[in-house]
Design goal:
Blueprint lengths: L10 E5 L28 H13 L4 E5 L9 H9 L6 E6 L4 H11 L3 E5 L5 H8 L4 H13 L5 E7 L7 H10 L2 E7 L22 H14 L6 E2 L12 E4 L6 E5 L12 E4 L4 E3 L8 E2 L1 H5 L3 H13 L15 H4 L2
Parallel strand pairs: 1-2, 1-10, 2-3, 3-4, 4-5, 5-6, 6-9
Antiparallel strand pairs: 7-8, 8-9, 10-11, 11-12
Helix pairs in contact: 1-9, 2-3, 3-5
Bound molecules: S-adenosylmethionine (SAM) and iron/sulfur cluster (SF4).
The site of iron/sulfur cluster has 13 residues, from α10.
Amino acid sequence: MKDSHGRTIDYLRISLTDRCNFRCIYCMPEEGIESLCHDDILRFDELLAIVRVAATKGIRRVRLTGGEPLVRKGVVDLVRQMNDIPGIDDISLTTNGVLLPRMAADLKAAGLKRVNISLDTLDADQFTYITRVGAIEQTLDGIDAALEAGFNPVKVNAVAVRRLNQDFLGFAKLSLDRPLHVRFIEYMPVGESGGADGTGWGKEDVISAQEIRDIINEGARAEGLGELIPAEGSRPEGGGPAEYYHFEGAQGTVGFISPLSRHFCGSCNRLRLSADGGLMPCLFSDERLDIKTAAEAGDEAAIAAVFDRAIGNKPDEHHDRVGTERGMSQIGG
Ligand code: SAM
Ligand code: SF4
């Protein structure tokens, strides 16, 4: 599928739920969001029908996200059934890792290929501050479980937020001894912006990928590690829009995703599907096309028509828009 700007669209990110077992300060209010009721979220048979049609339209890769995708009951079966759909050759997951110790082996056996785990700090107290209810061991154990289950690559994603004063070098060093691919993501203006209570997006909190790399390189030089080297030829599979580097002799890589400082809209290959059946042409847009009605009716031609409209409506770029009606947990990050 080519959109009106000539981009090939072959990637669908699916939010399985807007619920989550964490309440990260930049993603959800403390009290949580008013969760969608059961009837509003896409049933698995509807989701599978959508993915089947998507595959005939050229979608090859699917990422499951949320909310926390692993809190949705039956997710292992869903992966197994998606994996059987002709044309779908890569299913991946974005998770906070909490449920991986219980589920990683089953997910792998069901055909899940790759896992991204979100971890924003290496400090236990700060982890609980950011997630409001989590303990760092939960996510660290999740990373161990993903490696043990044999996922490759295992990526660790950290959103860089200036006021959190994160230890970027400490993160980058996670790539030294294990095949972990650490990625820093610029803080994006999604959901409400400028929360007076210190939560929510503010421009002053954005740290560019270049600045993060400079901080890492300065610290690494001081420790005798040498600087990050461009990782030509050794990008992890499904690298997406990240720029990858590695330390000399490291098992993993260090990547930088810069949606703000270096737009990658020109190579955007994705659509997003929200848990309640809204097909979204762009993360930074409030446009949502109803695909649930067509899926409920089991009308494949109508599902295909919604894909055609979504692709036709993909904007050329996000034009530095700030704030969206829905937060990341509702859009599907
Ligand atoms: N619960 C899962 C998790 O945390 O990995 C999946 C959903 S979460 C919304 C997906 C990713 O979006 C997480 O890595 C999270 O850190 C990231 N995210 C949330 N709000 C963001 C923002 N404003 N800018 C950049 N990344 C954000
Ligand atoms: Fe949950 Fe992920 Fe949002 Fe944190 S970032 S509240 S783990 S959905």
